[in-house]
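Handout, section B. The chain below has 395 residues.
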Amino acid sequence: MHQRSENLCRQLYRQRWFYGWLVLLVAGQLSCRQAEEVVVPKVEVPPVVTPPVDVTVTLPVVYIGSYDGKLYALDTLTGLPRWTFRADTSIQSSPALAYGLLFVGTNGNSLYAIDATTGKQRWQFKTGGLVYSSPTVLDGRVFVGCNDNSLYAIDAMTGRQLWGYKSDYGFFSSPAVANGMVYVGGLDGNVYGLDAATGLLKWQFTTKNYILSSPTVVNGTVYIGSNDMSLYAVEATTGRLRWSFPGGAPFEASPVVTNDLVYAATINGTLYALDTNTGNRRWSFTTPNGGIRASPVVANGAVYIGSRDHSLYTVNALTGARLWTYTTDFDIYSTPVVSHKTVYVGSTDMRFYALVATTGAQKWSFQTGGVVLSNPVLAQKSAIAGTYPTISGGK
């Protein structure tokens, strides 16, 4: 009996020692976790940007990409190429001009920087997916979305990646940059507001479907369409909704804002002019025979917009009354660029056109080797008239 008591005491002692040790171990782990949780996060240091070189391109040329894998510099008077750059594959992205360079994405998972005067490659940045998005350039940084689920910030002078932001799906939308922020729509249905220097997320606004439209930022408001059939106006600093407009069909084209009106088109072929403060409709214009996936341009008191019924329409910017129409041989997805005298636009009939801005009469056309979905940009920025969406390259 005495021996049993001693054995029981020894077992209890061992158990007390084991559980005491276990409690101390768990307490130590908890204290470590607590210490890890209260560690002050490090401050994100913006990557160093190479100071950009200020270069003015004076050539009288208009630049346009094609599905034949070429970027063309066409003389604005004759329509003949001054130079041609061959990329790795087809070009759907629209070029952006800055620092004497053209920045353009390709369906070969690349972003190029090309000398705008000579057509020679400066650098090539490889991504993990197709680059449908068109680049936006500001303060030495090139911002572009990609089908590999990333939005990239690239050093404009060197092609070095500065930062990348990952989403659940890719980015077809082209980014807009304003007041130190980058705004972009995602295929996951979210509108993102990111710090332009670091790529840190400031806010996101969720729509009910994927987004192909690119944002336009004016007077502290981000305007963007969604495939949930609504156009949204959200606060640029917070992402809070100001108003939404139901268009009855998806908004895939990008909106344009000028003179207290936002112009936006749906894929069923209706162009709306809405009050920027309230979202109330001022007027609408519907193309007779096709939908709209090109974005509008407002210039010379008119709205210029291409349609899938093969036509470029020009309507009065204040009333929506039709002024003139020019018809190509196939659909127009390209957003035009406009000077005071000429409208330049591409078509999926594989041609690029120069038209008289006031009448629509053809000045010249240029035959490419593929459909033209890319939007043109003029070398002489002083010649550009009007207001454009982000993807136009007009700004």
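Note. The CA atoms of residues 292 and 307 lie 5 Å apart. Compare this with the example in section A.
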